[in-house]
Structures are given as C-alpha cells and as structure tokens.
Amino acid sequence: DAGVIQSPRHEVTEMGQEVTLRCKPISGHDYLFWYRQTMMRGLELLIYFNNNVPIDDSGMPEDRFSAKMPNASFSTLKIQPSEPRDSAVYFCASSLRGTGSYEQYFGPGTRLTVT
Amino acid sequence: AQSVTQLGSHVSVSEGALVLLRCNYSSSVPPYLFWYVQYPNQGLQLLLKYTSAATLVKGINGFEAEFKKSETSFHLTKPSAHMSDAAEYFCAVTEGSSYKLIFGSGTRLLVRP
Question: CA A76, CA A53: separation in Å to the nearest integer?
C-alpha cells in the first residue's frame, strides 16, 4: 500500500489567502484524523472522521478552519483566511477500526508557511 | 480526561549506551499505549504498541517497552543506542473507547558518537 498521501508537501502563502490541504487515507481505513504540529503546542488533534462523518471537531481552532471528507478516499482541510500563526506542519492519519488496535498511520505532512 | 507525560524534552546518550525514554499516563483503566518515532521532516511512524496482551512489548529497530499498571508507566528502552536512533519519540494513549489518541509532548533523543 502507498500509505497515507498528503499534498502539497510544502505550501507558502500570504496572510489572508485561502489554503487547502489534501489527504488520501490508506485504502479501506474508516477513520481519518487531522493534526497540527508546532514547536510551541506540540501535536494537536484538530478533527477526526469515521466513515466520512466528522465525529469530533473540538480541536479546530476557529471558524477559519474547516474540514471535509466527501468520500472514503479523500479529505481536505481548508483555512480561510490564513494567518501567520497558522504556520505549522499539518498531518493526516488514518486507522482501521476492524483491527481493534487503534493504531494510526501518518502521512508525511504538509509544511505550511503563512507570511 | 486522559493525559500523557513524557519526562525530559531532550535525552542525550552515547552511541552504544542504554536508551530510556519515560512515559506515564493518567487513566486508572489500562488503555492502549503506543510509541511513535518521528525523523526530521517526516511523519510519525509506529514503533510499538501495547494492547493488553503481553506487558513487555517488542517493536522495530530493537526497541521495547514495558507496561506497568501499578506505576501507570510505559517506558521505552533500547539496550544499545545507534546514531540512526536520533529522532523525536512520542508516547500516545487511547482516550476511553474513542479512536482518539492523546500524544505526549515528545522527547528528542540525541545520540553522541
């Protein structure tokens, strides 16, 4: 399997612009997670989906952030408008409930820089 | 709510020395526990996991961890450090019956030649 795929790997944008991050989970996985990693705050869970339905979005920092999962093989995290404090590495991870072991498989991340 | 504490944001060892990275969790109900490793500019990779079977868990790259319920600990060890082990290590625990993982703040392992 190709693993979790994220695009782009790097994104540089100006404050106020819309940013869309993309994720393709491992085929057959039914859970998808979006995380943000910064030096100051470490690894934070933003939102997670089960069978394409958002289950917990309590980690989404504010209304500028939104996430969708239109089908089992694709999810997006959108920031509109972006701000410099959104600069971070954003990870997507997926998991398969049927294994019962809860382990998550991470993508390589998208490094976002907002200037 | 569940929480994870990793003692020491940085640990430095000499090549060939014992590696010990500490992790304590808060729940009185034994959860599932994980150690992940993150190499520079990469995502997190599963090192090993505890899922209520054997309390001593062996993982990849010679790492192992022991679940100690009485101490609510899940420390990661490796008998002999290698330069390639230099990375950041994260302990994680499940939260209740949800599929969320609660991550510790990470420990950066430095290996001196």
Answer: 13
Task: Determine the distance in angstroms separating the CA of A3 from the nearest CA of chain B, rounded to an integer.
Answer: 11
Q: What is the pLDDT of residues B2-43, one digit of tens each?
A: 789 999 999 999 999 999 999 999 876 667 899 999 999 899
State how far the Cα of B48 lies from the Cα of B64, in Å rounded to an integer. Answer: 7
A110 neighbors A21 (Cβ within 8 angstroms): yes
Distance from CA of A102 to the nearest CA of B (A): 6
Among the listed residues B92, B94, B112, the one whose alpha carbon sits nearest the alpha carbon of residue B104: B92
Distance between CA atoms of residues A65 and A36, nearest Å: 12
Nearest CA in chain A to B35: A103
Which chain B residue has the Cα nearest residue A34?
A: B100
Taking the C-alpha atoms of residue B74 and residue B55, their distance in angstroms, rounded to an integer, is 9
Query: What pLDDT digit, counting tens, does each position of B60-75 carry?
Result: 999 999 999 889 999 9
CA atoms in the 13 A half-sphere facing the CB of B89: 31
